Amino acid sequence: MFYMQKQLSLVVVLSLFVALWGCKTSTDITIDGQFHGVADKNIVLEKLSPNGTQIIDSTRTTSDGVFSFTIKQTDENPTFYNVRYNDSYVPLLLLPAEKVKVDAVGNIYNNYTVQGSEGSLKMRELSHLTMSQALTLDSISRLYENAATPEIAEAIGRLYGSKYILLKRSVISFVIRNSSSLVSIVPLYQPVFGSKYIFDEPTDIVYFRVVADSLGKHYPRSPYVTSLRADLQRVDDAFAMDSLVSSTRDNPEDALPDISIKDAAGIVRSLSQTRGQIVLLDFTSYSTPELKLLNKELMGIYNKYRNMGFEVFQVCVDQNKAAWIQYTIDARLPWITVNDFMGQNSRALLTYNIKKIPSRILIDRQGNILARDLYDQALDDAIQKAI
Q1: Distance (Å, rounded) from C-alpha 107 to C-alpha 89?
Q2: What Rg value do the Cα atoms of the chain yield, rounded?
Q3: How confident is the model over 81-135, as pLDDT tens digits?
Q4: How many whole angstroms separate alpha carbon 83 and alpha carbon 93?
């Protein structure tokens, strides 16, 4: 009898040990939240990776706006997530096994709190740091566009410059203070508003290197760090390419790196086939809101100079093949338009170190780069001079 009791006691102890061990080693992330005033609505959980955003779960809030998510986290590194309701969201940076509480009221992105995640608290600090200043810059920009006189425009421009410098200095300080956290990657790629980025000067590359070096020591296998290092490598390759381009000025037999991609008809079109013409190498996407306006402006310039040796070589990064082909047919574009449907992984983007869409490179008849990202009258003037 004593033996049987001893055996049963051992079974109970072992079962309790296994249960406790299972709790200790669980890497599941739990997110418990409440969006006040958002009753019986769909809430989406997004995972952010270097390749894009993926919806991984969804749920409906209760009548009190309460919701919950459980994430099976397999990566040991911190991972970026968004808890989204319509166009507003709560950004999170989560580690395995974290138990997170989120609470928001009104405008979710502007008025949320988070507990249980150090990385997510840093994300909140960053959003609060940039949000109000970005809105101020956007307002000043609109005032500048509607300035009544050149003198007023100049004064508004100076105000914009001072506010932008203030924002950038505060963000640089944030990046340096948090260079050992993956949150430091976010402002490196963060737009202030529209297509204006915080870190958009050539000298800003130093901050990318600081963050990459620091994070490489803490999270060497993180996909976000791998992507950052790849971007830096493309910059280094671009410097090497620029040196090569400079040397072609003394040796016109050399040429810029070639691009060979199929057009909508399936015919391979090569940049080298335009040699001897003035070429606008135009990187774009038919999903960008301003595309029709840009193509309309470009159509006028193209018609003006096409008989004088001017050509457009347009590289698109859209991945929806059917939609892209339909657009090219409907728009009746007269210039060369190609697409390899590889999106941001297009070899053309990597070859010419294109980090934002749209981007433009103006090339002379000898294959030398004349200018980058010219639009409207500035582009017209540059072509006129090259003709």
Answers
A1: 9
A2: 27
A3: 999 999 899 999 999 999 999 999 888 888 899 999 999 999 999 998 888 777 7
A4: 11
Structure tokens at 132: 């109000």
- Kindly report the backbone phi and psi dihedral angles of residue 180, in degrees, each rounded to the nearest multiple of 5, phi listed first: -90, 0
Alpha carbons 383 and 302: distance in angstroms, whole number: 10
| pTM of the predicted structure, to 2 decimals | 0.58
Phi, then psi, of 247 in degrees rounded to 5: -70, -25
Smallest CA-to-CA distance from 73 within 51, 91, 47 is with 47
Q: Are 284 and 314 in contact (CB under 8 A)?
A: yes
CA distance 365 to 248: 12
Determine the Cα–Cα distance for residues 355 and 275; give it in Å rounded to an integer. 25
Counting every residue written for the chain, the total comes to 387
DSSP string covering 101-158: EEEEESSTTTSEEEES-HHHHHHHHHHHHHHHHHHHHHHHHHHHHT-SSHHHHHHHHH
251 has a pLDDT exceeding 80:
no
Q: Which of 175, 187, 213, 181 is nearest to 77 (CA)?
A: 181
| Closest CA relative to residue 255, chosen from 275, 237, 240, 235 | 275
Integer Cα distance of 90 and 72 in angstroms: 19
Each residue's pLDDT tens digit, 125-177: 999 888 877 778 878 888 887 888 888 888 888 888 888 888 888 999 999 99
d(CA 34, CA 280): 52
Measured CA to CA, the distance from residue 332 to residue 203 in angstroms comes to: 41
Instruction: Assign 3-state DSSP to the chain and report helix, strand, coil percentages, each to 5.
Output: 45, 25, 30
